[in-house]
């Protein structure tokens, strides 16, 4: 397992204690290195031929830094290295795992694919971003409704997705869904 991140400036730096943006500037690779305890490489160096699969975590950083979904929605652009990484694994018929908001990357890069970001309606207030499913459909992809503890496998494209924090759920349910995504990616590898 190797961890990669793009060597780009973050769109925003947020004070998570207060929930507000700061004037600070940070680099995505440097911040990712903090989380990965330094064991990380620039995404530009990733070679799909050296790996059996790729998994993209989610989080608002995906929607702000790996693409411009947070600002542009379905009209977003995808970072060039993220796009080329997805294309390389897809072309090599290697599995791609995506969770939380990151399934929008596949929806943007692979028209016609199947993904999930949970439900397409705000069921019991648990899916406050349910409109993301509609945007995915508008991109020509099929959104598959799934519960937080489940994942969806697009067998034709070898794309496995789960909603994770797109659902307001207990952490153990989110953990279970991410676990099923990882297990399905490994089965396809």
Automatic annotation (TrEMBL):
Signal peptide: none annotated. This is GAL3A protein. It comes from Furnarius figulus. The gene is Gatd3a_1.
